[in-house]
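Might I ask for a little of your time on a matter of protein folding? Here, with my thanks, is the record as I have it:
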Amino acid sequence: MEHVLGYELHRLLWFIDHKANDRLRPHGLTYTQFRILRSIDALSPVTGKDLAAFLLVTPSSMSKSVTRLIDQGFVVDTQLRGVGNIQRLELTRKGKSLLDPIAEELDAVLNHITASSGVDPETLASALRHMTEEFSKISGSITHPAAP
């Protein structure tokens, strides 16, 4: 098969998902939950609605995932009671102490593999960010229901 970019990106994401899920399984987490924790860490404090838009999922789907992470003690909703039905999500110490070493390990693996293929990881990240922005501009009717 010809090396088609879309096909190769799909294969790469499959391997990333599986490597991450294998690493996270002993902690009772999936890669999707890890991505939520990482996003909360980066955007904290963040509303559930903004988190859903950032990760391109529906708010109801995000609410279910966040509830599980709260129940596991990784995330806390710091919104004061009586201020409305808006979440203000932050990581707990437990969430942060789990996230940091695993994120560092997964990043190191991905950076190593990227560099070993002759590509600078920061250059690739920048190019992918640009591609995502361009797709966002031209997508029009292909927007995700949670996209801002």
Q: What stands out?
A: The CA atoms of residues 76 and 105 lie 25 Å apart. Confidence is low (pLDDT under 50) at residues 141-148. The radius of gyration is 17 Å.
